[in-house]
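Sequence in, structure out. Go.
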Amino acid sequence: MHNPDGRSLIRDIRAAAIVMLIALLVGAPRALAQQGVFIPPPNSQNGQSRQNNGSAVLELPTTPGAQNGGSLNLPQVNPELNPQYNPGFNPQLNGQHGQELEIPPRQLRSQSGYEQVTVTVTDQNGRYLTGLQKGDFNLYIDGVQRPVEFLRQDTNTPVSIGIVVDTSGSMEPKIPQARAAISGLIENLNAQDDIFLFAFSNRPFLLQPFTTNHSLVMSRLALLHAYGQTALFDTVLDGLIMVQHGRYDKKALLVVTDGMDNTSQATLPEVIGQARRMGVLIYTIGIGDPNSGSMPGIAIGPFMFGGDIDQVDSQTLSELATETGARFYLMREVGDGEKIRAACEQISTELREQYTVGFVAPDPSRTGYRSLRVEVPNHPEAVVRVRKGVTVGGPGTEYAGPTSNPAMP
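Output:
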């Protein structure tokens, strides 16, 4: 006697197997194309390459200690390109009518305990307050007021910025809109800004090392293809290490993701601790619903099937932005390209409307993490955004945990 239900089950299993096989055959080449397989320009900055069957493949920076004791394989920082490492350097910005990058005097920068932070000041409606002077700022370290020793309005200040894009499987319908939005951001940046591009899924891929050739970075966006899971923490750590090798003292990361970390070896406390030490602005864009359920997906090789693929980890993204004085943008409607473009445009604008504030921390021999607060008392309508603290002379303190912070509209 035949069993119709059994034959139907066998047919369903065969069909599912065929679909999975086709997905593997189609998806694998696209993922390989994302893994940095291209010939880099002859003068790529801070890029390492190795030969693979006659083609150049960019080496992937790895998180120190997280992957079998690996370390980030980058060239030594060139002090002539990074004023932080050369107190006497005062570069002239090409193409900006002879304007020079304003940096603190050598004597101040070499003083023990000297620190710089980026400060954003807006009114209650989000409009940037410009033209402020040293006397407009009150700065407190561990509750003790310290004088502002250096102030720069960053209208023409170049930035070293890393762009980090989630290309896990769930990003498939969102990649075209992310490409368009990031292209818009790059077009609006200062022509002198140097940029690198990371993609990440199961692990991060360096698609373009630091360069001031913005057209080259935009061309690398074509290498973004959805594939695999989400190693968010590992990638942010690598991005923080990479951005330190930028040529300018002002540094930022932009992280675009639609998911939650599900494959990193690093943890959130490690990421926050590194962000505290580095002092890098981390702008984050989350695409999806932070309140969707927790139904797990099924991972088969690099592919995810089922689960809540549109659940975004807004708490982590918000915490990264808040700790560093940047912003978190939440796109609740999946695939809302216009909102992503608006967020990227606002980020590129904000980098030109900020202030760099320099000060000397009290008792610099006492190493560790110090709380930071900045006020603008002469402007009661002012809303001040700045990183939560600075690490003076050492590794700092451990991260205590997330805090509540709503997403920016």
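Check: The domain at 49-55+157-350 is CATH 3.40.50.410 (Rossmann fold). Confidence is low (pLDDT under 50) at residues 21-33, 35-98, 294-308, 395-409.
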